[in-house]
Amino acid sequence: MALTQSGSTRDGWSSRTAFILAAIGSAVGLGNLVRFPAEAGANGGGAFVMFYILCVILIGLPVLLSETLIGRHGQAAAPESFRKVAEHSGKSTAWEHVASLGVFSAFVVLSFYCVLGGWVLYYIGTFVGDLFSTGVVGGAFSDSTVAEVEALFPAMISDGITTSILDLVFLGITLFFVARGVSGGIEKVALYLMPAFFVLLVGITIYGMFGGAMGQTVDYLFTFEPEKLTGPVMLAAVGQAFFSLSLGVAGMVTYGAYVGRNVNLGVTSGIIASADTMVALLAGLCIFPIVFAAGLSPNGGLGLMFQTLPHAFQEIPGGSLIGLAFFIMVGFAALTSSVALMEVPTAWIIDRFRFTRAVASGMVTVFAGALGVLCALSTGVLAGFHPLAFFPMFEGMGMLDAMDTLTGKITMPIGALLTSIFVGWIANKRLVDSENGLGGALHVFWRFLVCWLCPIALAAILLVGVFPSFI
Ligand code: PFF
């Protein structure tokens, strides 16, 4: 095996650019393209967007840097990296369980993320079929009514066989790249798909600039109305920032472990967070002009991506082609994230049990496939199966919603909270300072954020996530 970025014969990124692209690939995903516009729509636009940006800078970025520095110091799977930092700081190695929780979260998120990836595959297929039947000119689905187009989504999610098969296909594609290793597979997918993703995103945004209602979109996304900044809106924004930056699941610890010592983690974390935020904003600038131009309202939830947008593509010229390009772009972004999610438990199994990468990633795939199929069926035949209903916050939730809530509102915030406490208060200060690549006032400010602001803000999210009646 060749000598890699991490300076050892262990597999790792072949260059700093490869790491940056892979980390951006991990961060940019359904969270930016589906969740961000849906949350902005559901939470009143500008106020949410402004607060979201603030959260990325003040809470997300410090935790992102904390995660990557633990990984780079440990040069191992996430729990082992936490253990090494704890050991070198003379503290209890029980801190490794923060990362064990992250491994669990990544596995659960992977399971339901691939179900959504499967939905995207379904829409890619639907747009390809439409392109062949109705041609490039005119809107998409020209021989269907609006009601028929909107009915595609409920029909798809209640067809458990199709969604389960597509879930397994998406998982299989993810396995294909993860099984090939860090430099041979994971970084290749980012190296080719991320540039293609950016071209598509910018292209569709430019289309929206000329063909869509851009002025209305800019007003909607960037007009700050302070009265709209309520408690739930702020919490939605913090949660979104974390999900979008892939934090709290030890994902960035895992990717950080393949980074060489010569890389400045402060600078690269800044690049990753800026790119992720830019993509979320561009996604808003790409989606809403098309929605507004079709005279539709920006409702929230999954309906925005899977019902409102296909309807909007019906109304605009070249809708079949733009729609197809759009869903391919979403598929690319989802794949670079699912690859990151699979790598977290895979790296752990390799480190812990000394299995080969092929066996480890295969095992993750089998278990994530089993849980994923249960999630896929939960919007159809298993809709009445509420696995965590004994706990009030999961009441009425099927497997997919329960897994999303369990990770997004409980295990991911706990992981991020404990990570900031670990880096801010437990780990040896000199060790942390030598890894973070920051100097002067920036360093002092980062320490303040990690020690105080991040733990307090994260504890608040957790409290409100578990006890919604608290606000
Ligand atoms: N950040 C990804 C998104 O916005 O879709 C989701 C994600 C990927 C979360 C990888 C966690 C992770 F480790």
From TrEMBL:
GO terms for cellular component: membrane. Its main location: membrane. Coiled coil: none annotated. It is found in: Membrane. InterPro entries: Na/ntran_symport (IPR000175), SNS_sf (IPR037272), YocR/YhdH-like (IPR047218). The chain crosses the membrane at residues 18-38, 44-65, 98-124, 161-179, 191-213, 233-258, 270-296, 316-342, 363-390, 410-427, 448-471. This is Sodium-dependent transporter. It comes from Aurantiacibacter rhizosphaerae.
